[in-house]
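Predict fold of Glycosyltransferase involved in cell wall bisynthesis; 362 aa.
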Amino acid sequence: MRIAFYAPMKSPNHPVPSGDRLMARLLIKALEHAGHEVTVASELRSFASKPQAEHYAAVLEGADGEISRLSTLWASKGKPDLWFCYHPYYKAPDLIGPKLASAFEIPYVTAEASYSTRRNIGVWVETQASVEEAVKIAALNICFTHRDRDGLAEVVPDATFAMLPPFIDTSVFAASPHSGSTGLVAVAMMRPGDKLDSYRMLARALERIPEVPWTLAIVGDGPCRAEVEAAFAALPAGRIEWLGKKEPDEVPELLSKAGIYVWPGCGEAYGLAYLEAQAAGLPVVAQNTAGVPEVVQSGKTGILTPPGDVNAFAGAIAGLLSDAGKRRAMGQAARNFVMLERSLDAAAARLGTMLPAGAVVR
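Predicted 3D structure, encoded as tokens:
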């Protein structure tokens, strides 16, 4: 099929890297691997960090312009076979696709849509209504986590759903064997909110195990660099290696030099970095919270500790560091899990059977 792809939160062509941009690019790759022709339909970004009526009005005007542009284009060049919207939610609704899909009678599909009734505040009441309507009219709603699926089903119980577990391109990890190191590593942007909370929790946990001979490599940078450094200030400087921002193609080698991936994952939707670490053969220590259990098999490929329990998180790190056999077994299980079940090829195979069944006009 010819697929019109749209990511209202952040285009796959956006210059700033993020997990959202990475997932959009991975979805396009998977769709292409499944034999589809994919075109990014629009670069319009509807994302707003705060419920501002002025911003929403401007986005609505931009959406009307894109609907007009694409209508003219499709009328002369031919319409696509399907509209595929990645990650519509209250801060970034799809204000283009549903109208075009209806006007041109093509199927509408969402991936990683989410809905939370507690977000019905100010102008977000309207954006939430847009998300609800999009899910309702969609021929198929592809969910990455059961939490998202349950949230959507609560609001639109008659919607059509299918599960697609989070995945990565494992080809870049094919030559990244685990080194057997005992070093810890974390890869994350330094920004306000959940990321900063996770950095702070990690620092507090490491403070509790000073007698354990750990070292930590931190890959990442961002506007909260000073706050992150302050969180780790009480720890011996020689134990922390600040590697800064790295390009995506540099990360596999950095991971392969470590022994355990440590990241609390506060509020994590699921975290592609967990899959990348496991592909490199690293066991994971994280919290059993949000979408983390969707990408880490607790007790098999890593250890998931109770949310907010710093002592348990510290204990899990110390326990893995002291047990080489367990580290090796979990690391191998982690690599097998991602390579066999969460690869681009596996995702393409699932999409290949999923979309034709969902691609019907409702």
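Residues 357-362 have pLDDT under 50 and may be disordered.
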